[in-house]
Amino acid sequence: MSNPKMIGSRGLRLITFITTLVLLLNNEQVIGATINHEQSLDKRGLHARAGGAVPVYTTCTAPGSFALTFDDGPYDLGSKLDATLDASNSKASFFINGNNYGCIYDYADTLVERFNKGHLIASHTWSHVHLNQGTYQQISHQLDLMEKAMVKILGVKPLYFRPPYGEYNDVVLQVLRDRGYKGLIMWSQDSGDSLASPPSSSEIVQSYGSYPEKSIVLNHETKSLTVNEVSVVSDSLKHGSLVQKKKIDSKSISIDARCLVLNFDLII
């Protein structure tokens, strides 16, 4: 066995170097494990980005489906709307803003209740801006604010997105792709509730009767006209009187695997 006194300065330096190298290698293994863990958590996001452009949907893809969607909330009329949907056992999709008709944090309880009941909560930008006029960074900032708010309130990030005014371009699609979104959702039918001279409730209900199956219908939860007519629409869908010979589902559904036939979760 070597005498410690005989090691000398060169030996001490060698021991120090070896010790440092071992520590670095161990640390590299930890860092590598962390990177691999993060990659495994983001497999769906990475897969979406690697799979090409974010798909744009204007209708459901599942036969016999019918999707009610509501933009621009959350808002004070939401409680009445939610009660109406509950009464008919209908599910809807809500494309919400962070700061439009109200502050999203003031309606946190409403959003949590909707989410727990199986409604889809998706992004509609933070402040309802014209995305076609924005840069990559500006568009990304709008989405980032919404994602952070939804994580704080619901604990999840949105996977679906609807652009305000239905406006989008290649830059918008690139931002969505880079942020791991699964779909940009447009619509096939517009109830017209946001027009300067909107149709009457009876006209809206009547128009629903002409909508084909697989329809994605645009509504706004900020319009009392919409909230009032949803009860008639939902009840008619439930009993089949509105669609008659059309093979519509027995109730309205949210934009999820039943509407789009997609094989991924609603949240990441």
TrEMBL record:
One of its GO terms (biological process) is carbohydrate metabolic process. GO terms for molecular function: hydrolase activity, acting on carbon-nitrogen (but not peptide) bonds; metal ion binding. Residues 1-32 form the signal peptide. It holds the Pfam family Polysacc_deac_1. Its cofactor is Co(2+). CDD domains: CE4_ClCDA_like (cd10951). Residues 64-268 form the NodB homology domain. The keyword Membrane applies. It is a lipid-anchor; GPI-anchor. GO terms for cellular component: plasma membrane; side of membrane. This is NodB homology domain-containing protein. Keywords: Carbohydrate metabolism, Glycoprotein, GPI-anchor, Hydrolase, Lipoprotein, Membrane, Metal-binding, Signal. It is found in: Cell membrane. Gene3D superfamilies: Glycoside hydrolase/deacetylase (3.20.20.370).
